[in-house]
């Protein structure tokens, strides 16, 4: 485990939130068929903070995550990632942002099956034009941080579900990215593996990353610094979680 | 481009993961490249035959020929222009005399070559005979022994593989020249194509020098191969010229450099439309396979997008597939093609019967072919790449189905192109094939642009169909972006197949496009021509024919002139028919149209009983069918011996002009007594069963043919009856191509459609559809693609097919009838059009049904279970 490693990779928190969402509205479709996924959501996530988002199905959790990382655009409102307003960015610049500032982890099937674990992790760096050898060194360093140092040359199919998710987390963080967006990362795992993944996320937050975690398991939400409840596209409650008790 | 290496790595690994798809794409791109590389290497690879050289050097340094009387001759490097006196008296140099004037240490061996008449057990033959010691190192490289051994003593010969027949095989003894020198065949060899390749090569001393005709430097009739310790220079040549020797030196020729480079391969404008059509076909063929790959990997693409892959990155990854497969398939295909051409060389040589010139791989052309393969790969991957870059990753990852950007194609552009292309095809009909291909290509591109609109039109017809078909049609329309390329691919193949089929069938229908299809005797006549048969063989043939014919059927005997020693004489009978350039080569009777015979021959030739003509024949006059050539009651002809020494001699005969009924079947007829009176002998060259006497049934003719073939291979038997065109080969060749292309492409496209329709099938399964419904849906999808494509393709293929069929005879073709008369195939003979209905039926009915059946059989009938997706 890497608990004792110093978080030298990430800059110290400077008070400005990593992501700041203000009055975000997202409407899918138009006219009578329009669906309001988000209705005026404002949320900041600071460096070193793990924020859990909970809520029933269709409450807009995933949409929130997609908008936070620039995968989707708000219909109204503003999203600033590391101080940059996403509204004005071209798709190419949004892609660049995802390579350099935000990383996603999904419930399942996160990895490209034809690439080794290390290559998967190095992918965003290589896409960014980093030379293969350097990208690989960076990938191996991050893999060590999530406890997968020895499995870099395996293919995803050879890994357990928990190991795969750790690799996905490593990929989401490689290249000094400070925002980690995890959408039900434990959904396809058994309890023990799920616990491990949450611990890794917690460590990454403690090391300076801003983590936005969508989950419907209160158990895991308890590891968060803050829990946000979404219902019908609106934040209905936001509370500091009882971290101490859960840990 | 950033991420290209990562993209290529993903492509490479994926190619290895889905081996069947990879193999399919490799074959689709690699096979055409391999075929093109093979054909180009096999056709362009062998260098040009050195056509100015009279005799192959082998390992010799020079070739000399000379006589003491030729002193102070002058020549060019090739000894093509030699100043010499072709007088009668020559005292050739001896080997010893030549050695003394060459560089010290030189060695010479005699060579001789000439056209010689020889007798085999099945009749006479005329051909080049070389007399040289093939065992000598200097002969190395001019031949390759394939059977038996080399001649080692006078009277022994090897036969050219191209001339190998039962009557000229090892063990057979031939008799050559007027002296009938025996030559025993002891081996078979492939000979170099330089000069006139020999029928036979005999050991020195087998034939007398005179058998090879007079000394002649232009023919290299009797010379010497020189092995010199130092190169024979131009100075040496001039020195030897002074002595009376004409010299062809290897060193001088090498120094002169190659001849003007002959253009290798077709020019760019000629090949461009074909290359474009090929490229289009390969791209459309491989495109659906790439689309399939993109579909299977859509989640992967979405993941890359989420991790920060820009649309350009995604395009790069998808295009990397095209690059990888294009390069791999092209390199392997080109290598296989070139390698196959190399390996096929001995087989080609055996088939040709000669040694082919050294093979140099035309790398530039092969590399261009391979580059086109890479371009095809990239183009085929382009549409899926664009689709990949446009896909919404969130929609893919959450399992939502994307509402694709469905366009109705570009119907206006399509209509304009189709109209323009069809108009151009009609205009280009009868012109060069390249123009037809180009306009067909324009039509084709128009149809590709129109395909989405055509697919949409199909949906309107679908409302009343049963569920699976209705679903398939609606699904095809909803996913026009996927259906259109698949339909276009199958359609392009069908267009090409239909066009070729129509052209082929039309050519067959317009039958007498080929010389052998023109009548060579009156309708219904049975004739057996054999100018090379001996009287003994004719006796056997005659009795064989008599055995098969009812008693009393007269056999018309056709004889021609020979010299007293039996050498056939070719008669140049004047003719005034327009557009006839005198044809100087031999016809089947080798007579030139001057036939010798009696009243029955005259009746056969004139196609009627003509007492006046009979009377003239009996009076010793030549009966001339074209009276215009008679001058002062005389016919003047020139007689030339077909082989051996002797120039042409004039013969003037009293003549009577008689026009035949119809075209007539000789130029002139004389009685045997006339020939004898003028100092000529005659031999039988043809037997005819006059249809006025007896119409030989086909079965009888076939039996006679079989019997005659057993007696000799040097006779031609033919019954003059029209034959129905045989189109089975069209069906077989095009049918196989159609089955492979149409079924293969429909299958790939159907797999693609079935994969995309999976959510709908899940829904059907959920509401209680039986497993066979899935089979029926897939069958329906196959049927929609195949039927739409083949109907459109057949319709579109008719125009270029008919246009190409209009390309009739573009220049007059002359050929010779067995009676020695030239027949001219007129320019622009009325073209015929015929549609290969069997092929059309196969394309429009059988193959779509087979495709549907295949789709149903090869589909797993288990309906998929709805899967929970990430939300």
Automatic annotation (TrEMBL), chain B:
<dbReference type="GO" id="GO:0005886">
    <property type="term" value="C:plasma membrane"/>
</dbReference>
<feature type="transmembrane region" description="Helical">
    <location>
        <begin position="363"/>
        <end position="387"/>
    </location>
</feature>
<feature type="transmembrane region" description="Helical">
    <location>
        <begin position="776"/>
        <end position="799"/>
    </location>
</feature>
<feature type="domain" description="ABC3 transporter permease C-terminal">
    <location>
        <begin position="278"/>
        <end position="393"/>
    </location>
</feature>
<comment type="similarity">
    <text>Belongs to the ABC-4 integral membrane protein family.</text>
</comment>
<keyword id="KW-0472">Membrane</keyword>
<keyword id="KW-0812">Transmembrane</keyword>
<dbReference type="Pfam" id="PF02687">
    <property type="entry name" value="FtsX"/>
</dbReference>
<feature type="transmembrane region" description="Helical">
    <location>
        <begin position="835"/>
        <end position="859"/>
    </location>
</feature>
<feature type="transmembrane region" description="Helical">
    <location>
        <begin position="272"/>
        <end position="291"/>
    </location>
</feature>
<protein>
    <submittedName>
        <fullName>FtsX-like permease family protein</fullName>
    </submittedName>
</protein>
<feature type="transmembrane region" description="Helical">
    <location>
        <begin position="408"/>
        <end position="427"/>
    </location>
</feature>
<dbReference type="InterPro" id="IPR003838">
    <property type="entry name" value="ABC3_permease_C"/>
</dbReference>
<keyword id="KW-1003">Cell membrane</keyword>
<keyword id="KW-1133">Transmembrane helix</keyword>
<feature type="transmembrane region" description="Helical">
    <location>
        <begin position="729"/>
        <end position="755"/>
    </location>
</feature>
<feature type="transmembrane region" description="Helical">
    <location>
        <begin position="21"/>
        <end position="44"/>
    </location>
</feature>
<dbReference type="GO" id="GO:0022857">
    <property type="term" value="F:transmembrane transporter activity"/>
</dbReference>
<feature type="transmembrane region" description="Helical">
    <location>
        <begin position="433"/>
        <end position="463"/>
    </location>
</feature>
<dbReference type="InterPro" id="IPR050250">
    <property type="entry name" value="Macrolide_Exporter_MacB"/>
</dbReference>
<feature type="transmembrane region" description="Helical">
    <location>
        <begin position="323"/>
        <end position="343"/>
    </location>
</feature>
<feature type="domain" description="ABC3 transporter permease C-terminal">
    <location>
        <begin position="733"/>
        <end position="857"/>
    </location>
</feature>
<feature type="transmembrane region" description="Helical">
    <location>
        <begin position="484"/>
        <end position="504"/>
    </location>
</feature>
């Amino acid at each position: 485990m890497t608990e004792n490693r110093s978080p030298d990779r990430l800059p110290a928190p400077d008070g400005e939130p990593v992501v700041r969402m203000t009055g975000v509205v997202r409407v899918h479709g138009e006219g009578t068929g329009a669906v309001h996924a988000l209705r005026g959501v404002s949320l900041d996530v600071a460096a070193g903070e793990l924020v859990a988002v909970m809520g029933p199905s269709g409450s807009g959790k995933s949409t929130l995550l997609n908008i936070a990382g620039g995968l989707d655009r708000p219909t109204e409102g503003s999203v600033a990632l590391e101080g940059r307003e996403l509204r004005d960015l071209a798709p190419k610049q949004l892609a660049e942002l995802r390579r350099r500032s935000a990383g996603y982890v999904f419930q399942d099937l996160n990895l490209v099956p034809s690439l080794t674990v290390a290559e998967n992790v190095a992918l965003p760096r290589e896409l960014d034009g980093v030379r293969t050898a350097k990208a690989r060194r960076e990938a191996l360093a991050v893999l060590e941080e999530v406890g997968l140092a020895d499995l870099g040359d395996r293919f995803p199919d050879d890994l357990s579900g928990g190991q795969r998710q750790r690799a996905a987390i490593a990929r989401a963080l490689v290249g000094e990215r400070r925002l980690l967006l995890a959408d039900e990362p434990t959904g396809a795992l058994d309890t023990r593996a799920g616990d491990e993944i949450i611990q890794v996320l917690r460590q990454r937050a403690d090391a300076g990353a801003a983590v936005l975690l969508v989950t419907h398991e209160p158990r895991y939400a308890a590891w968060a610094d803050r829990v946000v409840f979404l219902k019908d596209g609106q934040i209905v409650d936001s509370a500091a979680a009882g971290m101490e008790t859960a840990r | 481009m950033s991420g290209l290496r990562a993209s290529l790595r993903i492509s490479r690994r994926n190619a290895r993961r889905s081996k069947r798809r990879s193999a399919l794409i490799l074959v689709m791109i690699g096979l055409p490249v391999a075929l093109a590389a093979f054909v180009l290497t096999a056709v362009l690879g062998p260098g040009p035959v050195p056509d100015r050289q009279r005799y192959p050097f082998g390992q010799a340094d020079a070739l000399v020929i000379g006589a003491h009387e030729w002193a102070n001759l002058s020549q060019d490097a090739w000894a093509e222009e030699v100043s010499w006196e072709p007088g009668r008296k020559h005292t050739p140099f001896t080997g010893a005399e030549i050695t003394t004037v060459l560089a010290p240490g030189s060695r010479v061996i005699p060579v001789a070559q000439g056209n010689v008449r020889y007798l085999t057990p099945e009749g006479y033959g005329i051909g080049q005979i070389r007399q040289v010691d093939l065992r000598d190192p200097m002969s190395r490289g001019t031949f390759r022994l394939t059977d038996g051994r080399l001649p080692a003593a006078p009277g022994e010969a090897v036969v050219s593989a191209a001339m190998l027949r039962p009557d000229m095989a090892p063990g057979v003894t031939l008799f050559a020249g007027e002296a009938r020198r025996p030559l025993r065949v002891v081996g078979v060899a492939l000979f170099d194509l330089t000069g006139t390749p020999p029928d036979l090569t005999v050991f020195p001393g087998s034939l007398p020098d005179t058998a090879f005709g007079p000394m002649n430097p232009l023919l290299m009739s009797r010379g010497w191969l020189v092995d010199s310790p130092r190169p024979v220079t131009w100075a040496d040549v001039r020195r030897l010229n002074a002595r009376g020797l004409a010299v062809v030196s290897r060193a001088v020729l090498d120094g002169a450099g190659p001849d003007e480079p002959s253009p290798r391969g077709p020019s760019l404008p000629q090949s461009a439309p074909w290359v474009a059509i090929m490229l289009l076909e390969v791209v459309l063929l491989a495109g659906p396979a790439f689309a399939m790959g993109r579909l299977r990997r859509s989640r992967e693409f979405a993941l890359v997008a989420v991790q920060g892959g820009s649309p350009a990155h995604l395009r790069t990854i998808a295009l990397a597939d095209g690059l990888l497969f294009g390069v791999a398939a092209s390199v392997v295909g080109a290598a296989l093609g070139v390698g196959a051409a190399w390996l096929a060389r001995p087989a080609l040589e055996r088939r040709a019967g000669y040694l082919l010139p050294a093979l140099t791989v035309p790398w530039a052309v092969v590399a261009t072919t391979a580059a086109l393969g890479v371009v095809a790969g990239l183009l085929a991957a382009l549409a899926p790449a664009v689709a990949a870059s446009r896909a919404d990753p969130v929609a893919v990852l959450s399992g939502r189905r994307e509402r694709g950007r469905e366009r109705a194609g570009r119907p206006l552009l399509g209509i304009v192109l189709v109209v323009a292309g069809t108009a151009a095809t009609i205009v280009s009909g009868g012109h060069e094939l390249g123009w037809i291909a180009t306009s067909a290509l324009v039509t084709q591109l128009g149809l590709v642009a129109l395909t989405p609109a055509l697919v949409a039109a199909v949906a309107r017809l679908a409302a009343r169909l049963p569920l699976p078909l209705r679903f398939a049609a609606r699904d095809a329309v909803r996913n026009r972006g996927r259906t259109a390329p698949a339909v276009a691919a199958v359609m392009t193949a069908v267009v090409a197949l239909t066009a070729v089929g129509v052209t082929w069938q039309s050519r067959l229908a317009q039958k007498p496009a080929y010389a052998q299809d023109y009548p060579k005797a009156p309708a219904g006549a049975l004739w057996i021509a054999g100018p090379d048969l001996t009287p003994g063989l004719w006796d056997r043939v005659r009795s064989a024919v008599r055995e098969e014919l009812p008693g009393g059927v007269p056999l018309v005997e056709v004889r021609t002139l020979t010299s007293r020693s039996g050498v056939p004489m070719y008669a140049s009978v004047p003719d005034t028919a327009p557009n006839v350039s005198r044809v100087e080569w031999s016809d089947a009777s080798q007579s030139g149209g001057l036939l010798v015979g009696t009243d029955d021959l005259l009746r056969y030739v004139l196609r009627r009983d003509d007492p006046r003509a009979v009377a003239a024949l009996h009076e010793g006059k030549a009966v001339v069918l074209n009276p215009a050539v008679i001058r002062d009651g005389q016919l003047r002809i020139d007689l030339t011996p077909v082989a051996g020494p002797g120039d042409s001699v004039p013969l003037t005969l009293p003549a009577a002009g008689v026009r035949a009924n119809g075209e007539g079947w000789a130029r002139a007829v004389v009685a045997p007594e006339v020939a004898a009176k003028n100092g000529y002998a005659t031999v039988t060259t043809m037997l005819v069963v006059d249809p006025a006497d007896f119409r030989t049934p086909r079965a009888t003719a076939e039996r006679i043919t079989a019997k005659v073939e057993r007696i000799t291979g040097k006779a031609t038997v033919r019954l003059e009856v029209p034959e129905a065109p045989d189109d089975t080969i069209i069906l077989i060749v095009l049918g196989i191509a159609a089955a492979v292309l149409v079924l293969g492409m429909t299958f790939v496209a159907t797999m693609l459609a079935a994969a995309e329709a999976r959510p709908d099938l899940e829904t059907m399964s959920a509401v209680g559809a039986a497993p066979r419904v899935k089979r029926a849906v897939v069958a329906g999808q196959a049927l929609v693609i195949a039927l739409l494509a083949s109907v459109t393709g057949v319709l579109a293929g008719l125009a270029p097919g008919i246009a190409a069929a209009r390309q009739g005879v573009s220049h007059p073709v002359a050929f010779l009838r067995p009676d020695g008369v030239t027949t001219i195939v007129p320019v622009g003979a009325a073209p015929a059009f015929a549609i290969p209905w069997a092929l059309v039926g196969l394309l429009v009915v059988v193959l779509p049904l087979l495709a549907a059946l295949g789709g149903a059989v090869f589909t797993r009938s288990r309906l998929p279970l709805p899967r929970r997706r990430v939300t």
